[in-house]
Write a structure and sequence with these properties.
Blueprint: H1 29-32, H2 56-67, H3 71-90, E1 95-97, E2 101-110, E3 116-123
Antiparallel strand pairs: 1-2, 2-3
Helix pairs in contact: 2-3
């Protein structure tokens, strides 16, 4: 009887020091003009590196659990959607996908072996969107014109 050898991937944590907090006393042009300094780094309470990367197998599993369709029906559809998204990004197209957010391609660099490095920015909506909900603009509505009094 043949036995199948399985291996598990271990994740190792680096023992380097935590990133330094943003200094409160910066000497910038914004500080000299009494304007708040803008920092584009994410807030400290957002865990980014602690989460493992999502593989295609996990994506299919979660989609099956959430939608209730059979795995054999969901897998080809998800693979086709991923292929279309990959092709669009490789062409440098921006994506605007309601629950996920807006993806803007900033740079594309060719690497050896025919591969590409695509640098992009993802902007997600502030309020969580549910599938099937209508996305609304954040623009203010025009006020009603004043009603003229009869003379």
């Amino acid at each position: 009887m043949a036995t199948k050898k399985t291996t598990t991937r271990r994740t190792t944590r680096s023992t380097t020091a935590a990133p330094k907090p943003i200094a409160a006393t910066r000497t910038t042009a914004a500080a000299e003009t009494n304007a708040p300094a803008t920092d584009t780094r994410p807030p400290a309470d957002v865990p980014i590196a602690d989460q493992p990367e999502m593989k295609k197998r996990e994506l299919i599993q979660r989609a099956v659990e959430r939608s209730g369709v059979k795995r054999r029906d969901a897998k080809p559809a998800i693979e086709a959607a991923l292929a279309v998204l990959g092709e669009a990004l490789a062409e440098g197209r921006s994506l605007n996908l309601a629950p996920m957010g807006k993806v803007k391609v900033n740079r594309i660099k060719a690497i050896g072996g025919g591969g590409k490095v695509i640098v992009s920015k993802v902007r997600q909506p502030g309020k969580p969107m549910t599938p099937g909900s209508v996305e609304t603009d954040d623009l203010a509505e025009m006020p009603e014109p004043p009603v003229k009094a009869a003379e």
